[in-house]
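STRUCTURE:
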Protein backbone atom coordinates (compact mmCIF):
# COMPACT_ATOMS: atom_id res chain seq x y z
CA UNK A 1 0.00 0.00 0.00
CA UNK A 2 1.20 3.53 -0.82
CA UNK A 3 1.59 5.07 2.64
CA UNK A 4 1.15 8.73 1.69
CA UNK A 5 -1.90 8.12 -0.51
CA UNK A 6 -5.17 7.90 1.45
CA UNK A 7 -7.58 7.41 -1.47
CA UNK A 8 -7.62 7.80 -5.24
CA UNK A 9 -10.17 8.43 -7.99
CA UNK A 10 -9.16 7.48 -11.54
CA UNK A 11 -11.04 9.11 -14.42
CA UNK A 12 -10.92 7.48 -17.87
CA UNK A 13 -12.67 9.26 -20.77
CA UNK A 14 -13.64 6.88 -23.58
CA UNK A 15 -15.06 7.32 -27.06
CA UNK A 16 -15.30 4.35 -29.46
CA UNK A 17 -12.59 2.38 -27.66
CA UNK A 18 -14.05 -1.13 -27.89
CA UNK A 19 -10.67 -2.58 -28.93
CA UNK A 20 -8.80 -1.22 -25.93
CA UNK A 21 -11.25 -0.43 -23.15
CA UNK A 22 -11.47 -3.85 -21.46
CA UNK A 23 -7.68 -4.25 -21.29
CA UNK A 24 -7.23 -0.71 -19.98
CA UNK A 25 -9.89 -0.97 -17.28
CA UNK A 26 -8.76 -4.40 -16.05
CA UNK A 27 -5.12 -3.27 -15.96
CA UNK A 28 -6.01 -0.15 -13.98
CA UNK A 29 -8.13 -2.05 -11.45
CA UNK A 30 -5.61 -4.88 -11.02
CA UNK A 31 -2.74 -2.43 -10.53
CA UNK A 32 -4.58 -0.22 -8.05
CA UNK A 33 -5.77 -3.25 -6.07
CA UNK A 34 -2.12 -4.09 -5.38
CA UNK A 35 -1.35 -0.51 -4.38
CA UNK A 36 -4.34 0.91 -2.51
CA UNK A 37 -7.25 -0.09 -0.32
CA UNK A 38 -9.46 2.89 -1.14
CA UNK A 39 -9.90 3.74 -4.81
CA UNK A 40 -12.54 4.15 -7.49
CA UNK A 41 -12.36 4.00 -11.27
CA UNK A 42 -14.75 6.26 -13.18
CA UNK A 43 -15.09 5.68 -16.92
CA UNK A 44 -17.03 8.22 -18.97
CA UNK A 45 -18.41 6.74 -22.17
CA UNK A 46 -18.75 9.85 -24.31
CA UNK A 47 -21.50 8.79 -26.71
CA UNK A 48 -19.62 5.85 -28.21
CA UNK A 49 -21.25 4.31 -31.28
CA UNK A 50 -19.47 0.97 -30.94
CA UNK A 51 -19.62 -1.56 -28.11
CA UNK A 52 -17.62 0.51 -25.60
CA UNK A 53 -20.63 1.21 -23.38
CA UNK A 54 -21.81 -2.39 -23.33
CA UNK A 55 -18.31 -3.68 -22.52
CA UNK A 56 -18.04 -1.22 -19.62
CA UNK A 57 -21.43 -2.18 -18.20
CA UNK A 58 -20.44 -5.85 -18.28
CA UNK A 59 -17.19 -5.18 -16.43
CA UNK A 60 -18.96 -2.93 -13.89
CA UNK A 61 -21.32 -5.79 -13.06
CA UNK A 62 -18.35 -7.75 -11.73
CA UNK A 63 -16.23 -4.87 -10.41
CA UNK A 64 -17.86 -2.84 -7.61
CA UNK A 65 -15.00 -0.31 -7.74
CA UNK A 66 -15.90 0.66 -11.31
CA UNK A 67 -18.44 3.39 -12.05
CA UNK A 68 -19.60 4.06 -15.60
CA UNK A 69 -21.07 7.36 -16.76
CA UNK A 70 -22.80 7.36 -20.14
CA UNK A 71 -23.24 10.40 -22.36
CA UNK A 72 -26.16 9.81 -24.71
CA UNK A 73 -24.33 11.72 -27.44
CA UNK A 74 -20.71 12.65 -28.00
CA UNK A 75 -20.06 15.89 -26.09
CA UNK A 76 -16.31 16.18 -26.50
CA UNK A 77 -13.13 15.26 -24.65
CA UNK A 78 -13.39 18.09 -22.15
CA UNK A 79 -17.02 17.30 -21.38
CA UNK A 80 -16.10 13.67 -20.67
CA UNK A 81 -13.37 14.75 -18.24
CA UNK A 82 -15.66 17.23 -16.52
CA UNK A 83 -18.30 14.53 -15.95
CA UNK A 84 -15.62 12.34 -14.43
CA UNK A 85 -14.14 15.07 -12.23
CA UNK A 86 -17.60 16.04 -10.95
CA UNK A 87 -18.06 12.44 -9.80
CA UNK A 88 -14.77 11.98 -7.90
CA UNK A 89 -15.09 11.32 -4.17
CA UNK A 90 -11.51 10.53 -3.13
CA UNK A 91 -8.58 12.62 -1.87
CA UNK A 92 -6.65 12.51 -5.15
CA UNK A 93 -7.93 12.58 -8.73
CA UNK A 94 -5.92 11.06 -11.56
CA UNK A 95 -6.91 10.91 -15.20
CA UNK A 96 -5.60 8.90 -18.11
CA UNK A 97 -6.78 8.21 -21.64
CA UNK A 98 -8.36 4.80 -22.19
CA UNK A 99 -6.84 4.07 -25.61
CA UNK A 100 -3.89 2.11 -24.22
CA UNK A 101 -1.24 4.74 -24.97
CA UNK A 102 -0.30 5.12 -21.30
CA UNK A 103 0.86 2.57 -18.73
CA UNK A 104 -0.85 2.91 -15.33
CA UNK A 105 2.32 1.61 -13.66
CA UNK A 106 4.00 4.96 -14.40
CA UNK A 107 1.66 6.48 -11.81
CA UNK A 108 3.67 4.84 -9.03
CA UNK A 109 6.50 7.36 -9.43
CA UNK A 110 4.03 10.21 -8.86
CA UNK A 111 2.98 9.20 -5.36
CA UNK A 112 6.18 10.09 -3.45
CA UNK A 113 5.95 13.64 -4.84
CA UNK A 114 2.51 14.31 -3.39
CA UNK A 115 3.01 16.25 -0.20
CA UNK A 116 5.98 18.11 -1.58
CA UNK A 117 3.79 19.28 -4.48
CA UNK A 118 0.02 19.59 -4.83
CA UNK A 119 -0.05 17.96 -8.28
CA UNK A 120 2.15 15.88 -10.56
CA UNK A 121 1.90 16.41 -14.32
CA UNK A 122 3.09 13.79 -16.79
CA UNK A 123 4.81 14.65 -20.05
CA UNK A 124 5.11 12.17 -22.90
CA UNK A 125 8.54 10.71 -23.56
CA UNK A 126 9.05 9.59 -27.19
CA UNK A 127 5.51 10.57 -28.14
CA UNK A 128 3.87 7.95 -30.39
CA UNK A 129 1.89 10.27 -32.64
CA UNK A 130 2.14 11.46 -36.22
CA UNK A 131 4.48 14.31 -37.11
CA UNK A 132 1.52 16.60 -37.82
CA UNK A 133 -0.03 15.95 -34.39
CA UNK A 134 3.31 16.74 -32.76
CA UNK A 135 3.59 20.00 -34.70
CA UNK A 136 0.02 20.96 -33.79
CA UNK A 137 0.70 20.17 -30.13
CA UNK A 138 3.85 22.30 -30.12
CA UNK A 139 2.01 25.25 -31.66
CA UNK A 140 -0.88 24.91 -29.22
CA UNK A 141 1.52 24.79 -26.26
CA UNK A 142 3.20 28.02 -27.38
CA UNK A 143 -0.16 29.71 -27.94
CA UNK A 144 -1.69 28.88 -24.56
CA UNK A 145 1.54 29.91 -22.87
CA UNK A 146 1.38 33.33 -24.50
CA UNK A 147 -2.36 33.82 -23.88
CA UNK A 148 -2.83 32.29 -20.41
CA UNK A 149 0.66 32.16 -18.94
CA UNK A 150 0.46 28.37 -18.72
CA UNK A 151 3.97 27.06 -19.32
CA UNK A 152 4.35 23.28 -18.97
CA UNK A 153 6.23 20.72 -21.03
CA UNK A 154 3.15 18.87 -22.30
CA UNK A 155 -0.04 20.77 -21.57
CA UNK A 156 -2.39 18.15 -23.05
CA UNK A 157 -0.70 15.02 -21.72
CA UNK A 158 -3.53 12.84 -20.41
CA UNK A 159 -1.62 11.55 -17.39
CA UNK A 160 -1.98 13.94 -14.45
CA UNK A 161 -2.56 13.65 -10.70
CA UNK A 162 -4.43 16.43 -8.87
CA UNK A 163 -5.95 16.97 -5.41
CA UNK A 164 -9.59 15.95 -5.52
CA UNK A 165 -10.66 19.06 -3.61
CA UNK A 166 -9.58 21.23 -6.53
CA UNK A 167 -12.34 19.79 -8.70
CA UNK A 168 -14.88 20.03 -5.90
CA UNK A 169 -14.07 23.71 -5.30
CA UNK A 170 -13.57 25.00 -8.86
CA UNK A 171 -16.10 25.00 -11.66
CA UNK A 172 -14.74 23.89 -15.02
CA UNK A 173 -16.24 25.74 -17.97
CA UNK A 174 -14.66 24.41 -21.17
CA UNK A 175 -15.84 21.24 -22.86
CA UNK A 176 -13.35 20.68 -25.68
CA UNK A 177 -9.57 20.55 -26.12
CA UNK A 178 -9.15 23.62 -23.89
CA UNK A 179 -9.87 21.56 -20.77
CA UNK A 180 -6.24 20.92 -19.77
CA UNK A 181 -5.35 24.56 -20.27
CA UNK A 182 -8.29 25.63 -18.13
CA UNK A 183 -7.38 23.25 -15.32
CA UNK A 184 -3.76 24.42 -15.22
CA UNK A 185 -4.72 28.09 -15.51
CA UNK A 186 -7.14 27.89 -12.58
CA UNK A 187 -4.88 25.56 -10.62
CA UNK A 188 -1.92 27.95 -10.68
CA UNK A 189 -4.08 31.03 -10.07
CA UNK A 190 -5.44 29.33 -6.95
CA UNK A 191 -1.88 29.06 -5.62
CA UNK A 192 -1.34 25.33 -6.04
CA UNK A 193 2.08 23.89 -6.89
CA UNK A 194 3.08 21.12 -9.29
CA UNK A 195 6.04 19.22 -10.67
CA UNK A 196 6.48 17.39 -13.98
CA UNK A 197 7.54 13.78 -14.62
CA UNK A 198 8.20 11.94 -17.87
CA UNK A 199 5.94 8.98 -18.69
CA UNK A 200 5.95 6.39 -21.45
CA UNK A 201 3.76 6.89 -24.49
CA UNK A 202 2.74 3.76 -26.39
CA UNK A 203 1.13 3.06 -29.77
CA UNK A 204 -2.68 2.97 -29.72
CA UNK A 205 -4.23 -0.45 -29.14
CA UNK A 206 -7.13 0.43 -31.45
CA UNK A 207 -9.65 3.07 -32.38
CA UNK A 208 -8.86 6.44 -33.91
CA UNK A 209 -7.68 9.72 -32.42
CA UNK A 210 -10.23 12.50 -32.87
CA UNK A 211 -8.36 15.51 -31.48
CA UNK A 212 -6.95 16.51 -34.88
CA UNK A 213 -10.32 16.66 -36.63
CA UNK A 214 -11.12 20.13 -38.06
CA UNK A 215 -14.27 20.39 -35.92
CA UNK A 216 -12.28 19.70 -32.73
CA UNK A 217 -9.58 22.21 -33.69
CA UNK A 218 -12.16 24.88 -34.53
CA UNK A 219 -13.92 24.31 -31.22
CA UNK A 220 -10.61 24.63 -29.37
CA UNK A 221 -9.86 28.00 -30.97
CA UNK A 222 -13.38 29.28 -30.30
CA UNK A 223 -13.05 28.31 -26.65
CA UNK A 224 -9.58 29.85 -26.44
CA UNK A 225 -10.76 33.22 -27.75
CA UNK A 226 -13.95 33.30 -25.67
CA UNK A 227 -12.37 32.23 -22.38
CA UNK A 228 -9.23 34.32 -22.83
CA UNK A 229 -11.46 37.41 -22.93
CA UNK A 230 -13.69 36.17 -20.09
CA UNK A 231 -10.93 35.13 -17.70
CA UNK A 232 -8.82 38.24 -18.32
CA UNK A 233 -11.88 40.38 -17.49
CA UNK A 234 -12.31 38.38 -14.30
CA UNK A 235 -8.65 38.89 -13.43
CA UNK A 236 -9.01 42.65 -13.78
CA UNK A 237 -12.16 42.64 -11.63
CA UNK A 238 -10.33 40.66 -8.93
CA UNK A 239 -7.41 43.09 -9.03
CA UNK A 240 -9.72 46.09 -8.67
CA UNK A 241 -11.51 44.44 -5.77
CA UNK A 242 -8.20 43.70 -4.00
CA UNK A 243 -7.04 47.28 -4.51
CA UNK A 244 -10.31 48.61 -3.09
CA UNK A 245 -10.08 46.35 -0.04
CA UNK A 246 -6.45 47.35 0.50
CA UNK A 247 -7.37 51.04 0.43
CA UNK A 248 -10.22 50.50 2.87
CA UNK A 249 -7.91 48.75 5.34
CA UNK A 250 -5.44 51.64 5.46
CA UNK A 251 -5.85 53.69 8.69
CA UNK A 252 -7.14 57.17 8.06
CA UNK A 253 -4.66 59.92 9.04
CA UNK A 254 -6.24 62.92 10.74
CA UNK A 255 -4.86 66.26 9.49
CA UNK A 256 -2.51 67.93 11.97
CA UNK A 257 -4.63 71.05 12.04
CA UNK A 258 -7.69 69.06 13.01
CA UNK A 259 -5.84 67.51 15.97
CA UNK A 260 -4.77 70.92 17.26
CA UNK A 261 -8.24 72.28 16.99
CA UNK A 262 -9.55 69.31 18.91
CA UNK A 263 -7.17 70.00 21.80
CA UNK A 264 -8.24 73.61 22.22
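SEQUENCE:
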Amino acid sequence: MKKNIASLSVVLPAHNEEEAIAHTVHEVIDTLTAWLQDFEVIVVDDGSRDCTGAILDTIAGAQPGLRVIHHAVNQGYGAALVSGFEAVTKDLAFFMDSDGQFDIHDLEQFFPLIGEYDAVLGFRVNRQDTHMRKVNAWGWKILVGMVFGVYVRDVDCAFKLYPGDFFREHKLETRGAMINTEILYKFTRAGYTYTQVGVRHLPRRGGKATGAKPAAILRAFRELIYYAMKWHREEKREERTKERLTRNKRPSVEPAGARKMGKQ
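REMARK: The chain has one domain: 8-246.
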